[in-house]
Amino acid sequence: MDIEVLRRLLERELSSEELTKIEEEFYDDLESFRKALEINAERHEERGEDIHKKLYLAQLSLVRNLVREILRIRLHKIVDMAFEGVPRNLVGDEKKIYKIITAFINGEPLEIETAGEESIEVIEEEKETSPGIIEAYLLRVDIPKILDENLREYGPFKAGDLVVLPKSIGRVLIQRDAADKVLIQL
């Protein structure tokens, strides 16, 4: 796993209407890569090697941005698949996300029990997330284009979309009963 692999995957996701086929252990490899970058940054910080530390932190930031965009695209495609009822090329927790969205669409309870591992939780209250966990929001209503406090534009979105948004926007959507928070562990 490296940054180039993530860039190529992003290009494939952007150019295809269907989910790009990825290896079953993609998310595990991604987490290992992310942890390796963090450990290298910490190691160079302990040695007082600021330039190397900054290099690893910049790579980590780039990885997070690439992953955020890949996940945003893949989640949108998973929502589309849930409406079509035909899952294809899903791996790991994506299968659980598909089940949650399908249950939501069909008006079934959203809680899904996982045997021994709590990878995805639909929650109502605000919790701080740790590294490797992405907050997404399952929208209950259509949302027009909106701006965050830094004037970045998001949307428009449709009811049933699973979207990654800043916490400030997500908090407002939850307070107005317009979305449910979904935590996704990488």
From TrEMBL:
Residue runs in coiled coils: 27-54
Cell division in keyword set: no
Family annotation (InterPro entries): Gins51, Gins51_C
Gene3D superfamilies, per database record: 1.20.58.1030, 3.40.5.50
Keyword Coiled coil: yes
Residues annotated as signal peptide: none
All residue ranges annotated as the Gins51 C-terminal domain in the record: 135-182
Pfam families the record matches: Gins51_C
Keywords assigned by UniProt, alphabetized: Coiled coil
Protein name from the UniProt record: Gins51 C-terminal domain-containing protein
UniProt organism field: Pyrococcus furiosus (strain ATCC 43587 / DSM 3638 / JCM 8422 / Vc1)
